[in-house]
């Protein structure tokens, strides 16, 4: 199995041999020469994950005033068993991610197949010919103890390796644009020194050719507006020197819709990096606040979501109030406060902590336990309880399961010996819980379920007919609404069908009977 890369759909791809490496290099050399003759700059995007692959397609889709492509993009992905499958998949014009955004498959087909300005590769040679490298490699925060984010830390070793790879290959004029969310101080104190060290090993005079490092964080929303969240959205950026700022400004203006969504330039990369982690810490704190009020609302017969709608009518000050749910997932809100908190001591040698942000992470990480509490109100003993879980991704309309609150929910249910069947129209394989199959058949997932949990707001679930759900279970199940996915009308239908219904923040359900 070491030489096989398995895609989420189960398709096998054989990892490349040395002969194939040599052949691939010849192909890249020929492509690069052809693209240079056409006057196009070469961009390499490091990492073909949820951000990198779509960012690469957006860059490749950029044109001049006459509609001619500005760039050729090498989408670089390491040849590992875990992720090599993305390379051949992308090169057929098929995105390696699932989304409800119809523009995702369209832009991949257009740039890969029609325009032929985007191609994926596993070779580091892509960096040797790059004028610009966009860094979109993974950088996680580790939280060693559940519910204790204050113990979290950032292991920069893999990220450092990625930067060292760039330092060994990029030409001195190449601008490295870091999009990965990083702890404040990373560009100045990690990326730049590594590139300088590798440049010097290659005999490059770093006084005349200092590394050109910039930072511009993504604000990707991988749902119905996946592509637009990259191309048609505000960007913050900065650089480690004036030249890198200038190059980043020119590049971003040529790729993104900055006429309608102007760039914001900050004074240095510390500020740009701090902006991203503070932005997501604010959102995490906003959500954490709503859970306390949701529990209060449940106990006094109030629908917190109707209260929230009333509050949000106060535009400009209160319209950004977020909502409680099963929990907080995804790649940003679950880790960014931890990255910032860790950087205070580890990078800047400062005392203190970001207590409010860290407390919010702890509340959000443990939020799925409240849904367990709702189940236990009817079924105090979870052993052998049959649970149908509708939705395992962290967000509606996407197939991203990273840090999904459904994972926490299932782990707790499994520890209590409940029997869980999961369904998700966007997820083929749950890599974080390999022993939990994600069923594609509603009937199979719902059959004989004692409890039906609406965990994610996929459109399929929002449109589901209560009569059909109940019919597929063959019972009168307990129905749990984790984030206002069921209207009052549908809740009333479930109640009329003999089901009991509970919901996060939905204390008014008894009044619907």
Q: Can you tell me about this structure?
A:
The chain is α/β, with parallel strands linked by helices and 513 residues long. The protein has helices at residues 18-37, 52-60, 86-90, 103-114, 125-128, 157-169, 186-201, 228-231, 242-255, 269-299, 304-312, 336-346, 355-365, 368-378, 405-415, 442-446, 459-462, 466-473, 488-496; strands at residues 4-6, 12-14, 41-46, 71-76, 118-121, 132-135, 141-142, 153-154, 175-178, 212-215, 236-239, 264-265, 386-390, 419-423, 438-439, 451-454, 478-481, 500-503. Helix 10 crosses helix 12 (336-346). It has 2 domains: 4-268, NAD(P)-binding Rossmann-like Domain (Rossmann fold, 3-Layer(aba) Sandwich); 299-327 and 367-512, NAD(P)-binding Rossmann-like Domain (Rossmann fold, 3-Layer(aba) Sandwich). Strands 5-4-3-6-9-10-11-12 form an 8-stranded mixed sheet, with helices on both faces. Strands 15-14-13-16-17-18 form a 6-stranded parallel sheet, sandwiched between helices. The protein contains 19 helices and 18 strands.
């Amino acid at each position: 199995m070491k030489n096989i890369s398995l895609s989420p759909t189960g398709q096998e791809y054989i990892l490349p041999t040395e002969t194939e490496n040599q052949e691939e290099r010849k192909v890249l050399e020929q492509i690069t020469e052809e693209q240079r003759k056409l006057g196009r700059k070469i961009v390499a995007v490091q990492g073909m994950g949820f951000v990198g692959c779509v960012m690469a397609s957006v860059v490749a889709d950029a044109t001049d005033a006459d509609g001619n492509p500005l760039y050729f993009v090498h989408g670089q992905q390491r040849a590992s068993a875990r992720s090599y499958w993305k390379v051949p998949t992308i090169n057929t014009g098929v995105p390696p991610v699932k989304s409800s955004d119809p523009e995702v498959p369209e832009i991949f087909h257009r740039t890969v197949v029609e325009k032929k300005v985007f191609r994926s590769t596993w070779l580091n040679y892509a960096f040797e010919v790059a004028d610009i490298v966009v860094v979109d490699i993974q950088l996680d925060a580790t939280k060693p103890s559940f519910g204790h984010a204050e113990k979290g830390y950032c292991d920069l070793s893999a990220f450092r390796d990625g930067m060292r790879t760039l330092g060994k290959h990029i030409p001195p004029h190449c601008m490295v644009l870091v999009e990965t969310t990083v702890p404040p101080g990373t560009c100045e104190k990690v990326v730049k020194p590594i590139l300088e060290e590798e440049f010097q090993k290659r005999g490059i005079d770093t006084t005349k050719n200092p590394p050109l490092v910039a930072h511009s964080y993504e604000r990707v929303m991988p749902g119905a507006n996946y592509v637009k969240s990259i191309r048609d959205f505000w960007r913050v950026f900065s650089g480690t020197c004036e030249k890198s700022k200038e190059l980043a400004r020119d590049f971003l203006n040529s790729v993104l819709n900055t006429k309608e969504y102007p760039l914001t330039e900050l004074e240095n990369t510390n500020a740009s990096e701090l902006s991203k982690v503070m932005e997501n810490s604010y959102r995490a704190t906003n959500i954490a606040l709503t859970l306390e009020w949701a529990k209060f609302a449940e106990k006094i017969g109030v629908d917190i979501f109707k209260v929230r709608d009333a509050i949000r009518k106060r535009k400009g000050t209160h319209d950004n109030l977020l909502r409680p749910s099963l929990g907080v997932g995804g790649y940003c809100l679950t880790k960014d406060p931890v990255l910032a908190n860790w950087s205070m001591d580890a990078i800047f040698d400062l005392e203190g902590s970001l207590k409010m942000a860290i407390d919010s992470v702890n509340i959000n990480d443990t939020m799925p336990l409240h849904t367990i509490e709702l189940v236990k109100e009817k079924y105090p003993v979870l052993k052998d309880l049959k649970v149908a879980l509708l939705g395992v991704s962290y967000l509606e309309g996407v197939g991203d399961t990273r840090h999904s609150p459904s994972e926490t929910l299932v782990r707790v249910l499994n520890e209590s010996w409940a029997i869980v069947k999961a369904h998700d129209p966007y997820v083929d394989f749950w890599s974080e819980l390999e022993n939990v199959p994600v069923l594609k058949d509603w009937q199979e997932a719902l059959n004989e379920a004692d409890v039906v949990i609406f965990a994610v707001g996929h459109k399929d679930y929002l449109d589901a007919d209560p009569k059909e759900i109940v019919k597929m279970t063959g019972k009168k199940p307990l129905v749990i609404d984790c984030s206002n996915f069921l209207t009052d009308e549908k809740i009333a239908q479930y109640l009329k069908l003999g089901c009991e219904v509970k919901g996060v923040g939905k204390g008014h359900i008894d009044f619907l009977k």
